[in-house]
């Protein structure tokens, strides 16, 4: 019998490979992403005409984008942008959560079906119970956002509706289908729990996720159209079909980034729910259940988080490729310091996730074999974190500059450059995966004859991958010309992914028929549960922060280069103001989340026997 | 595979694991130690060689796909 965890890993691997193939296929039909030379010949042949097709010369099918004046924006006495900002942020937080939860719930339910272990089914159902309450709130904020946008930005929304046309109706239909499928999936859980009914239920889950992901990519096309419009000419008049409008150069990078980020975010939120229930549990059985649930949620959040920086890197690379000015505004101008804040938040996520795993190693005696490694992992994580938060350019007085010996510090200055950050982030991800690996290994003893050879191979892969990441960053980043900086970052990413993939594959085979050591679920420290609270707070704040960056790079444009923003708020707000707005949205979101946790917990309460009778 | 137990050599894997990784060697002369070191060295050397070759190939392939030679002679590439 194969261990459920390894079934899980196989599912993740198969899903990951399928996802990569799907994205490469989609990329082959868009103007963005990987070079045509790298595509399979059959796909490249189809892609070439699309990539080379110029829409700029096509005849316009409609009027140009309107040139709005200050009078075209209704005034309500407070900043319209702030109102829309908070409402849109709340809608996005909840939408990310409700679209992500059914994805991993479907995988968990599937594992439960394959293994025949009812605990998976119960956990999946409980995850859905949290999501179903959040779904109503998502719809409420979605409706409020639509009203706020049409009320406060009528000219802009009129143009967007004209450009996207009937696609808005398709979105509404998808939303309707999502609602029907979600309620069928949740409320049909027990009715379709056995026999062929379970496969019907899994089919519903698959459909739900297909519709949900389609909703996500449709909504993404509006955001990416505003940043990098396609299918319109320089005046904003439509010159292509809806497909040409949707498939802008940033669409697929944003699709991938949000898809992965949503899963990590959803995992973190349900992890907080498990921690909340663990800390308030009254019986040992409840503690065991919510300890396991918290572990699973952390697993989902951190494992999904590992490839996220690479998707973000791709998005930024495409932003630079589309408009160098836009890229510089984001990473070299007024918004550059936000990436230091981003480093603090990502450092928090990685430290919290790792700390939770290290605490969880106390569940089994077998963990003693690996405890010596923890201090080295901690050193790398803290070191990487410090490098990542080192800024490059400081605002200095003449006295400070004289004391420093120039505008940049002699030793720390190079750490502010991108090659150093790339080394730091890759090493942090490699060592976070190492935490995962030793956690998983601590509960097992391998019985295969090639255990030592396998261990030697995986250790060698770690050593050489770390050396390769450092070499590619230092040598190509500092000692050769600029073109190598970007090129070598791909090498670094693939080195990290190689460690992860080889670690999963080797461990899957090595621990196939391993001896399992007893685990003491439910006895993990309360302190570790606070790490599960830290994760969603950092994730939420990070989403708000990077959303502000993504949106602000448009500067004074509603639709970049096509439709100017002439509202009173047509400037990039200060970092302090933005920080306050993001904090307000985050606090508001968590108040709502606590309400959802409370409602979900109410569902467990049973009436006393005399009342029930 | 060689098992070291009470100074005798036999063919098994588990005792070898104990000896090489757990330090539970219970006797035997320098020949046995040499044998263990040779096996350990071969195992780790082989694994390291495989990893080195793999990552060298990876670097070569990825940089070549981007039109960049590895350029290991510390000169700016053109």
Task: Sum up the structure in keywords.
heterodimer, A: 613 residues, mainly alpha, two-stranded antiparallel sheet, 21 helices, 72% helix, globular, B: 78 residues, 2 helices, 2 strands, 8% strand, rod-shaped, disordered N terminus
Number of strands of chain B: 2
Spatial strand sequence of the major β-sheet of chain B: 1-2
The total strand number of chain A stands at 4
The chain-level mean pLDDT of chain B equals 70
**How can the largest sheet of chain B be summarized?**
2 strands, antiparallel
- Please give the radius of gyration of chain B in angstroms: 21 Å
From the helix content, strand content and strand pairing of chain A, which structural class follows? Answer: mainly alpha
Hey, roughly how much beta strand do the residues of chain B contain?
A: 5-15%
Helix and strand element order of chain B: EEHH
Largest sheet of chain A: 2 strands, antiparallel
